[in-house]
Structures are given as C-alpha cells and as structure tokens.
Amino acid sequence: MWTTLPIIGFDTETTGVDPAEDRLVTCSLVRLTSDGVERMYWLADPGVEIPERATAVHGISTEYARTKGRPITEVLAEISHVLVPHLAAGYPAVAFNASYDFTLLESELERHGLPTLAQQLGGKVFPVVDPYLLDRSVDQYRRGKRHLEHLCTHYGVTVADDFHNAEADVVATLRLLGAMMRRYPQLASTPLQEIVQKQEIADREFVAFLNRRAIAKGRPARETMDSWPVRTAKRTQEAMH
C-alpha cells in the first residue's frame, strides 16, 4: 500500500496566481516516514516586487523577503534536491491543487537555469498525489466549493485556521489525505499509477466542464491541456491556492 511509503507534503506561497509567470516566495516540505516527521521551510528573495495583493494573502512583503529571504537559486536547488530522490524512489509527493505548485517550481527552475524535476527524473514528474483531484474522482457531482478549507470541513479534518501559510497548508493537506483514505479505503490499496490516472481523468473532466459552462455563458473556452501535474500551456487558475 502506497500510504505506508515515505510521503512528502509540498506547498508554496508566491507572487501571484499564474504558475508559469509568478515567482516563489516560500516553500514548505513535510516528510513523513516510519522514523517520524521532518519539516523543511524556505523563505526566498524572489528577485521581483511582491504585489500587495499577494502580501495580503501570505503576509510576506518585498522588504521582508529581501531582508530575510535567501537567494532564489539556492532555495530552488535545495527544494529540488529533496524532491528528486524522493520521487525517483517511487515515493509520493502530496500537494493540494498540485498542478499549481509543480508548474511553478518547474517554471522557476527553468527560469533560473537550473535542471527541472522532469529533466532530473528523466521523464514525467511522478508520483504526485492531489487530494483535490482525488476528491473529484470519488465524488464528482457533489455540489459546493472544494478549496482546501472546504474539503477539510467536509472530511472532518481539524486544522489551525491559518490557510495560505505554506507549512499550515501542507499539514492540512496531509491530514485531509489521511481522512480521505479512511473514508475511501480502496484508494490506499490502489497502485500509485492508477491513482495518478484517476487524477488526470478528473482534471481533464473538470477542464471540459469549465469549457462547457463558459461557452454556455457566451465566454471563450479555456485551453484544454492534457499535461498534469506540470502544465505546458497557460490556464487561468481557480482560486484554490
């Protein structure tokens, strides 16, 4: 069962909502193994101004990042050095709305002339587990919002009321995943390859739904993209992050 493997929870806070263009400000990784819990946190100087609207979300100002943050290339390299061997061993990385965080990380690595995760892994970024898409795969037609805080409420997960803090969001995401495994134990015994396929299907179906809804309201459809968890084309992000 993949739930017994070492697991890394992953979350970022950034300068905006476009993962292909915006920059990393903070990152939290939480590694769960049979030996216990290891928490890793980075504050970076992104090298650009942090917009006030982003600061209002995560509390990190441009001045604070420049004063207290580390060079972005050092931070990106260290994050990569944790994630790559973990993924290469076949261990899952868990992120809520994972396409945002992994697209942003890959974009940042490429932007700063560092090898991407995909390049270091020799192919796809795998295996990634996304509780947001897993929830859509097991309960596709349930009404209501599916932001992290809403899903925590739906699955009875008690967390600190501190969303949009990278470490708090990682902890909430990992607890949410545990609650989902208890409610849907068949997911824990499903091979990781099938878990990823379920998420890819859920992602494509949701994009198709958004396109149909946009067209029905006379708006242009979004670009349909098959790539997950790393986007190869721009897509307006839902306000889940």
Distance between the termini: 29 Å
Rg (CA only): 17 Å
The CATH top-level class label: Alpha Beta
- Which word captures the global form? globular
Biggest β-sheet strands, sense, barrel: 6 strands, mixed
**CATH homologous superfamily name?**
Ribonuclease H-like superfamily/Ribonuclease H
What CATH architecture do you see? 2-Layer Sandwich
Briefly note the CATH topology name.
Answer: Nucleotidyltransferase, domain 5
- If helices are DSSP runs of H or I spanning 4 or more residues, what is the number of helices? 9
Question: What would you call the quaternary organization?
Answer: single chain
Number of β-strand runs: 6
Q: Trace the largest sheet across and list its strands.
A: 4-3-2-1-5-6
Please write the string of helix (H) and strand (E) elements: EEEHHEHEHHEHHHH
Helix content, binned percent: 40-55%
Sheet/helix structural class: alpha/beta
Strand content: 5-15%
Q: Could you list the spans in which at least 5 consecutive residues all have pLDDT below 50?
A: 235-241
How many distinct domains?
Answer: 1
Would you tell me the overall average pLDDT?
Answer: 92
